[in-house]
């Protein structure tokens, strides 16, 4: 039997970086962060909690080679046809024009040029569009912009989900007869996007409109909260916004998730 390698299996180990060291998770993390260079993935950030791989794997040549293969394959798969690109940009342009309150002083021509320079981002936006996320630019700074779930209520396609695969596995083991709609993290990873940061949700998106008045959404949760068994979710209400914790395995027919994709400005 071949020796078990660091990238085998799907178990998330508490001693590892927050997303583990499997090639699938490394590829998803790298794609989400825009770090498609395998050397950047295996670099030490100076803080163990922020490293994509464990310190002991910095010089793991077989793992580094395998991750490079996964990244190359993932990037090749995330391409749209010319017709799909045109349709995706047209849908985004129409929504961008209709919701100026979300991105005042952001120029569509600059957004378009940046997306055309990053076809993988257009692929993700196309996936968001198909799943009912109503993707739109909702935040921008000097380095780039964020496109996220801007539907008024949480997406119907993702409702009744648990937070992540750890919670999903718990449900299957402990409540095998109970139906739920997968996990928010898995759905986001399948689109190569992140869950929306709770600070962006509360202090940016919700300040530009009314969202989740009748629904709620799972949000990006850091390891210190997730290790307690909980995850963050948020919703709007008359006069305010709520962001708080709930059991990660708890699924509600009124709760989906909000995603976000960071795109750097084209040079």
Can you tell me about this structure?
With 267 residues, this protein is α+β, with helices and mostly antiparallel strands. It has 2 domains: 23-77; 79-267, no CATH class. The protein has helices spanning 23-33, 38-41, 61-77, 82-98, 108-116, 119-130, 165-174, 184-190, 198-203, 223-226, and strands at 135-140, 144-149, 194-195, 216-218, 230-237, 240-247, 255-257, 259-264. The strands form 2 sheets. It has a 4-stranded antiparallel β-sheet. Helix 1 (23-33) crosses helix 3 and helix 4 (82-98) packs across helix 6 (119-130). It is globular. The N and C termini lie far apart (50 Å). Residues 1-21 have low confidence and may be disordered.
Report how far the terminal alpha carbons are from each other: 50 Å
Shape: globular
User: If strands are numbered along the chain, what order do they take across the biggest sheet?
Assistant: 1-2-8-3
Strand content: 15-25%
Largest sheet: 4 strands, antiparallel
Query: Uncertain regions: pLDDT < 50 for 5+ in a row?
Result: 1-21
Structural class: alpha+beta
- Total strand segments: 8
Q: Rg, please? A: 19 Å
Order of helices and strands: HHHHHHEEHHEHEHEEEE
Mean pLDDT: 86
Number of domains: 2
Helix content: 25-40%
- Helix segment count? 10
How would you name the oligomeric state of the polypeptide chains in this document? single chain
Tag the structure with descriptive keywords.
267 residues, alpha+beta, 2 domains, four-stranded antiparallel beta sheet, four-stranded mixed beta sheet, 8 strands, disordered N terminus
